[in-house]
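SEQUENCE-TO-STRUCTURE ENTRY
===========================

Subject: a protein chain together with a token-level encoding of how that chain folds.

Sequence line: the amino acid chain in single-letter code, read from start to end.

Question of interest: how does this chain fold, as expressed in backbone structure tokens?
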Amino acid sequence: MDKLYKAAFTAIGTIIGAGVLGLPTAISEAGFLIGLTDLLIIGGIMTLTTLIIGEICLRTKDAHQIPGLVGKYIGKKTEGLVTLLAVFSMYGALIAYTEGNGKILSLLLGVDPIIGKLMFFIPFSAIIYFGVKGVEESETKLVLIMIFSILILSFASLFYFNPNNLFVVNFSEVFMPIGVIVFAYSGMFAVPQMKEILWMEKSKMKKSILLGMFIPLVLYLFFTFTCIGALGKTSADIITVALANEFGIFFLVFGYAFTFFAMGTGFIALGNATREVYCQDLNCNKNLSFILAVSPALISLLGAATFVDILSITGSLFMIPLLIIVLYLYCKAKRIGERKPEYELNLPSWVLVIIGAFLFLAMIIATWQSLPGWLISLI
């Protein structure tokens, strides 16, 4: 495989995950046309931010992950903040996956939701603890399965398509989908790995980033379009559950299997990544690293928030601040970078200020709208 496509596939594999299962529900709250606007705006910002990370990596001689780049160009305190935000982002995903697959098992087996969550959490945590050979090596196959599944569900939804469902709008929820979109479309952490893949062909970095961001955006647009066209506004936490309840056995079997697979593989990948942060970066032993990595997922047992709310809060409260920090990191790296990059965006400061202000406003509003009612009442 050409390294350009291999690097692009790394980005696609990082982006496409269980977050797609919350997109149609979140967007349906605002209406497809408003959600489409949100998706295109946030998609553009996320693509630009990923290109910014690419330029920063190319301005740097050695290989660094994003926290390392922040430490190099901004300082150790901000590096610690970025590490904390990244860990809490992964925690949010682990909680969401436990919530989502626990619900799937509860519906399929007719057990209490708490039992369903434990039935998912215990064996998948054991996989993280003992390790499974070949998980990383199978990434390309897993991504292809995910893409195939999204397309199959999308085309199947077209048989129930009602154009009138696309024209319902709710302007009061215009910011509601943003946190979920950020969660589902974040690919910035793949860029340092893409640089390593393209180490001898760095001139291909820009094209590989654009390709890696474009394919998930097209898939998300098509999946959201077909699901909302078939269902209209839905309050279901997980879109495949809504499709199964509404349209029968195919969506029940294929949709539930895809959902369980997507969240299960995501849980393993992020659980391992979180454990490595504690083990490699913070020098914790194996057992403590494992406990610190997976135990926060048990917060889902409280049932305090829905799957979509968890995605939205994680995207808004932890991932958007990372994007804002990246904008500042770009300004610093432009001034004190170590080498001339293979591409330069040459973004003026006023563009960065406008994007940063929009992200900050979106973070505040989307987080507030995503908080559970009982928590808002306490505040």
